Amino acid sequence: MIGMGQCCMLAACYLLHCSAFTDTDEVIKFVNDRRKSLVVSAENENDTISRRHSPLSVPSQIRYVHYYEMMLRTDHVRCKTYLISDITIMTIPHTSANIINGGCINPYISLSVLAHNDEEEIRNAWFPKRIYNQLNCITKKLTNNKLKKQQPLRSYIIGRDDKMTFDMLPYDVNVRGDVCLSFFSEGEKLVQLYFNTCFINDNDQDNCCLVFDKEFIDIACDDVYHYTYDKEFKIMIHLKQVKDDPSINIYKLHIVPSSNDGVDPPVVYDRDEYKQMETELRELLFMYTYGDTNIV
Predict the structure, then answer these.
(1) Which of the pair, 121 or 48, is modelled with greater confidence?
(2) Domain for residue 120, yes or no?
(3) What is the extent of the structural domain holding 72?
(4) In the chain, fewer beta carbons within 10 Å around the N or the C end?
């Protein structure tokens, strides 16, 4: 998600913010048209550029541009906390050659939220905070006074299994704000997606279900020929709204992210650096508008 896509996402949001556009689909088309792909074959420049090579094509990035438009249309955005009851992955991805009929070996999930440190001097630094990892999740005492250990990993075979369900209730996994769901198998990240709890439309607070079809899931959407992920591949997240808990988005003082956790140390910008970033973004948008093709 780094590089051109992030830049185009910020440009699209800025154009919405400045009221240059009022529709997300229109501003995304405009940004992609202005920022032509650099991955065009020199042998045949008339070839159609696939969606995965478009500047702004990652589903999570597009989702957040829609979020920004929704935020501009409302007077107040309320952050909400949800308890995840279960996560279901429909159809079995073909990720392992060691299974005769195809399938997935020992898949597991990881959940992170965007958090900041409560120290005043680094309050503006936001970075991922892992709240659940199936490999090392903590045991939880159930109502019957028995301890339930982490869910054992197992393999799923195409033809025998039609879905993967991860029961989350025993672990009290609460999410708030920006959430990243990652899906792994044999140490490799297979898919991921980002969403924000502020924009969940929960008419039934006790039975809310987020459904992400294949085309709206990062990495999986690039499998246009369905080699690895079936065309019916989707992720379903069942949630229940609970009492809001802002502490979910705070890193405790004794918890310091390290490179061993796959989390970069927090980056803090002062006021002058923010102004410089804004100036560079304005220059970039000017070049977008007037079609400067020399920008990389």
Answers:
(1) 121
(2) yes
(3) 1-77
(4) C
Residue 292 forms part of a structural domain:
no
With 50 as the cut, is the pLDDT of residue 260 above it?
no
Same domain, 27 and 151: no
112 and 227 belong to one structural domain: yes
What pLDDT is stored for residue 194 in this prediction? 96
Residue 242 has pLDDT above 50, yes or no: yes
Q: Based on the domain organization, do 177 and 69 belong to the same domain?
A: no
**Can you give the pTM of this predicted structure?**
0.76
Task: Classify residue 261: in a domain, yes or no.
Answer: no
